[in-house]
Design a protein that fits this description.
single chain, 412 residues, alpha/beta, Aspartate Aminotransferase, domain 2, 7-stranded mixed β-sheet, 4-stranded antiparallel β-sheet, 15 helices
Length: 412
């Protein structure tokens, strides 16, 4: 039986909730306010917008806070679509190499930051917070606008404070692959009331409420939910992915990384319709279960770490004994024969993700420090695997995944 790339952790009551709120789509505002109230306990004194995608929140944020030709700092390993959006809006971009400790932006390299820098976007990569306390202090001293990319770091904290609370704005993804999920969506949290008002007005004016747009999205969601179940995935998608990976790897890769938003020349902020009531209801359920799901992932992480750390060909990224972060992603580096190991793991039905999409210096972006080497980024890019650490999978499945990967990495 194949294990899918990801799973969406839904309970039986969530399926009834989806049906109920599709049939009765009224009073959406009431449910939205309830979800915002839940979120406000994590983000006190912040204005909160619920979005059809995190990337829309990023687009509206930097468009409002910056102007063309402003210089913005990014980590060399971050979400490439965000850099594409910044360039689309006419901004200049400089990349800073990462720390080997956690693959987040390296605070020790901040001497490379220009005096005329206007903004900094820091990514809490794979859910593990960067040194956001030091970074916030640096930005305040230099009068740099700090934005947090919290796409993967909901329920992670630094010094007891949840990520998203340190910057002028925090962008959270609640896409199908994220926890919590609104089955496609995002959240913007900000201390800037004008940015919040502008975001809300833009969405009311520009987002589609078209039935067919929403139906198209629902069909995609339904397929993703079905593929969360290993037995169904084995029947529906396993053989298709196996065929594509072997005979048409280009199409396989396009499907796998379709959510990266890099296939089009320009980002379209109107790409997705308004959130539906059933999506908000699922988001509310996910927030209520967030602590429970994080607890399961932490236990999974410790099991994965215990097994995989015993392989000489595997480096576990981040400390999975640390309970300050959400353990949403369990990422390892394969030291030797990466592609061979990946293929062996895939052929045994464990469909891990090849995390070779984060090196932003590898894209055709025009950046200010084009000649920089980004040595640490290059050392890790092309050697990272993301393992299915999801609360939907049981302990036996997690142990099976770890043992198969270790065996393949060790050449057995």
């Amino acid at each position: 039986m194949a294990i899918p790339f990801f799973s969406i952790d839904l309970k039986t009551r969530d399926f009834f909730s989806i049906i109920k709120n599709i049939i009765l789509p009224f009073n959406k505002d009431k449910l939205e306010n309830e979800l915002k109230k839940k979120l406000s306990s994590r983000y006190p004194n912040k204005f909160i917008s619920l979005l059809p995608s995190g990337r829309l929140g990023f687009y509206l944020t930097i468009k409002y806070l910056f102007k063309p030709d402003d210089l913005i700092i990014f980590s060399s390993m971050s979400f490439p679509l965000y850099i594409k959006i910044a360039k689309q809006l006419g901004m200049r971009v400089k990349l800073i190499d990462i720390s080997e400790k956690d693959l987040n932006i390296n605070y020790e390299n901040f001497n490379q930051i220009d005096k005329n820098c206007k903004g900094m976007v820091v990514t809490h990569l794979f859910g593990n917070p960067c040194e956001i306390g030091k970074i916030k202090k640096f930005c305040e001293e230099k009068k740099i606008i700090l934005i947090e990319d919290c796409a993967q770091s909901f329920d992670s904290n630094y010094g007891g404070i949840e990520t998203g609370n340190f910057g002028v704005a925090g962008i959270i993804s609640t896409s199908l692959l994220k926890i919590p999920t609104t089955l496609s969506g995002g959240i913007l949290v900000t201390s800037n009331e004008s940015l919040y008002r502008n975001t809300e007005q833009w969405m009311k004016k520009n987002l589609s409420n078209n039935f067919f747009d929403k139906l198209k999205l629902f069909v995609k969601i339904f397929i993703f939910i079905l593929n969360s179940y290993p037995k169904i995935y084995s029947l529906l998608s396993d053989k298709i992915f196996f065929f594509l990976k072997k005979y048409n790897p280009r199409i396989y890769r396009k499907i796998l990384y379709s959510g990266m938003g890099m296939k089009d020349n320009f980002f379209n902020p109107k790409e997705r319709p308004q959130l539906s009531k059933y999506q908000i209801a699922i988001g509310l359920s996910q927030i209520e279960r967030c602590t429970e799901m994080t607890s399961v992932r932490r236990k999974n992480s410790q099991s994965l770490q215990e097994i995989l750390s015993n392989s000489k060909n595997i480096q576990v990224i981040n400390n999975h004994s640390d309970n300050n972060w959400n353990h949403q992603y369990f990422v390892i580096k394969i030291k030797n024969d990466f592609q061979k190991v990946l293929n062996k793991v895939f052929n045994q039905g464990i469909h891990v993700m090849d995390e070779n999409v984060w090196d932003c210096s590898a894209y055709n972006f025009e950046i200010e420090n084009q000649d920089s080497k980004f040595e640490i980024t290059k050392n890790y890019d092309g050697a990272l695997l993301r393992i299915q650490n999801n609360s939907f999978l049981n302990h036996k499945q997690i142990e099976h995944i770890a043992k198969v990967i270790k065996s393949c990495a060790d050449g057995k």
